[in-house]
UniProtKB/TrEMBL annotation:
Domain annotation FERM: ranges: 17-298
Start-end of Polar residues biased regions: 388-398
Protein name, as recorded: FERM domain-containing protein 5
Subcellular location: Cell junction, Adherens junction
This protein's encoding gene: FRMD5
Ranges that cross the membrane: 497-523
GO molecular function: cytoskeletal protein binding
PANTHER family associated with the record: 4.1 G PROTEIN (PTHR23280), FERM DOMAIN-CONTAINING PROTEIN 5 (PTHR23280:SF5)
One annotated GO biological process: actomyosin structure organization
Organism: Hipposideros armiger
Keyword check for DNA-binding: no
């Protein structure tokens, strides 16, 4: 009896798994789930812990053993999706950015979205011109440390915060000036609300970039926003397509297709190549979910989408949540006392160092930052009304999209500050979470290849997997090929066509062989099975057997005897 109880208890322990979810403020929530627990169960536990009701905007992200990012599907088993050894580690993130974050019903929801956009700003995913960057950073400063106090905030206090991947002393002074003179008296909730209102107007708001290459082999980032599909190349947006113009999303292997129907019945197919088939499938599923969430009126309109055709093995996927309009209607019905919010502004953070962390660690040495001035997103081109296949310059800031070096350093100092690189490269900042972009490795490699140094924080994050000199040399070529577009999409298309034809021939030959085997069994075997007996007794089969099959069999037998006799004579 005791042994049975012990074995039963051990089996129950084996069916339980420990899960750790890293939250937006970098705190961690740990729980235990059963082996067959669905993703919805874990997500509900997490939302209950956060006291969150407007939860449809959020999701849980994880990385599989092949370093591919995924969103946890709520209708499937958590254990089967992760495919890794416990304990499991995941991240709680904004999955669908609100079209108007300031219109969210509850303050707790706005605070969580604020934390996400703050991370986007720090990691280089949210780009903006210098004046907007200074204002956003000042809002963060006001929300975290309150009003300016000369006794607590000495000269250069804003430099102890890291708001962006890198920035200049001039920008730090501008941030401190706005914080001192314009934001006094604002509560943390008010500062966060103003931050959201400003961030929502930026053209890279809501961008979760997927690295790809276009048909010419040029590097690009694809993203889905509340307003449509976006393609970024260099530091310019080359495509913006509204959701009502997207007719179909499809992928085959590493190739991603976007079907667009514009005015005057103009149809366009955009083609991009992901690094791996798994990355392409993840991109496709993200597109299906975003299109359903932002475009549809009701969740009952959601349909299962297939990405298969005659030659390629496809996938089927269905978005299982509510759509944006339903979420807004449900939020309007929330009636409860506002939950208490425990802000973590002064808590040490892995991704956003606070004022208690000592001097800011910049990825560009201060002596170099004075000399390096890169033209940043001084106003992305306005492509709100239609999609364009070629870059369109802004009429007011057309020159800011061109990578160039100013002949006069003084003029450059007056106009720009170092916030982002020439090329839109959100991977240039370290993501110290389990959902780190795989392009972090590319960033580290590129800096070692080019002889640049990494910051102390970056070295700490990557020391466990720091590539050796041989690895850098071996992977350097891959990095250059990815960045410079050495791939040959035309050859890939030809190879895929040949592979498709071969697959079709193999399937056809297999079907013919199965039919021939079935015919031989029907005509030559003595198997007395009801199914075979019914077929043999039909007039059509008897006619086929005596008029066609028997003469054909005699002809083959005659030919075989002739060949055998010829071989014997020789």
């Amino acid at each position: 009896m005791l042994s049975r109880l012990m074995s039963g208890s051990s089996r129950s322990l084996e069916r339980e798994y420990s899960c750790t979810v890293r939250l937006l403020d970098d705190s961690e929530y740990t729980c235990t789930i059963q082996r067959d627990a669905k993703g919805q169960y874990l997500f509900d536990l997490l939302c209950h812990h956060l006291n969150l009701l407007e939860k449809d905007y959020f999701g849980i992200r994880f990385v599989d053993p092949d370093k591919q990012r995924h969103w946890l599907e709520f209708t499937k088993s958590v254990v089967k999706q992760l495919r890794s050894q416990p304990p499991f580690t995941m991240c709680f993130r904004v999955k669908f950015y609100p079209a108007d974050p300031a219109a969210l019903k509850e303050e707790i929801t706005r605070y969580l979205v604020f934390l996400q956009i703050k991370r986007d700003l720090y990691h280089g995913r949210l780009l903006c011109k210098t004046s907007d960057a200074a204002l956003l950073a000042a809002y963060i400063l006001q929300a975290e440390i309150g009003d300016y106090d000369p006794g607590k905030h000495p000269e250069g206090y804003s430099s102890k915060f890291q708001f962006f991947p890198k920035h200049s002393e001039k920008l730090e002074r501008k941030i401190a000036e706005i914080h001192r003179t314009e934001l006094s008296g604002q509560t943390p909730a008010t500062s966060e609300l103003n931050f959201l209102r400003k961030a929502q107007t930026l053209e890279t708001y809501g961008v979760d970039p997927h690295p790809c290459k276009d048909v010419s082999g040029n590097a690009a980032f694809l993203a889905f926003t509340p307003f449509g599909f976006v393609v970024l190349q260099g530091n310019k947006r080359v495509h913006f397509i509204k959701w009502n113009e997207v007719t179909k999303l499809k992928f085959e292997g590493k190739t991603f297709y976007l079907y667009v129907s514009q005015k005057e019945e103009k149809k366009i197919i955009l083609t991009y190549f992901a690094p791996t088939p798994e990355a392409c499938k993840h991109l496709w599923k993200c597109g299906i979910e975003n299109q359903a969430f932002y475009k549809l009126e009701k969740s009952s309109q959601v349909r299962t989408v297939s990405s298969s055709n005659l030659f390629f093995k496809g996938s089927r996927f269905r978005y299982s949540g509510r759509v944006a309009k339903e979420v807004m209607e449900s939020s309007a019905k929330i009636k409860r006392e506002p939950p208490e919010i425990h802000r973590a502004g002064m808590v040490p953070s892995r991704s956003c160092p606070s004022i208690t962390h000592g001097p800011r660690l910049s990825s560009v040495p201060r002596t170099r930052r004075r000399a390096v001035h890169i033209s940043i997103m001084e106003g992305l081109e306005s492509l709100r009304d239609s999609a364009h296949s070629t870059p369109v310059r802004s009429s007011s800031h057309g020159d800011t999209f061109l990578p160039h070096v100013r002949s006069s350093r003084a003029d450059s100092n007056e106009r720009v500050a170092v916030i982002a690189d020439e090329a839109y490269s959100p991977a240039d900042s370290v993501l110290p979470t389990p959902v780190a972009e795989h392009s972090l490795e590319l960033m580290l490699l590129s800096r070692q290849i080019n002889g640049a140094t990494c910051s102390i924080e970056e070295e700490k994050e990557s020391e466990a997997s720091t590539p050796t000199a041989a690895d850098v040399e071996a992977l350097g070529g891959e990095l250059r090929a990815l960045c410079q577009g050495h791939g040959r999409p035309e050859e890939e298309q030809v190879n895929k066509f040949v592979l498709s034809v071969l697959r079709l021939l193999l399937v056809t030959m297999g079907l013919l062989f199965v039919l021939l085997l079935l015919l031989i069994i029907l005509t030559e075997s003595d198997l007395d099975i009801a199914f075979f007996r019914d077929i043999r007794q039909t007039p059509e089969f008897e006619q086929f057997h005596y008029q066609y099959f028997c003469p054909l069999r005699r002809w083959f037998a005659c030919k075989i005897r002739s060949v055998v006799s010829l071989l014997i004579d020789t």
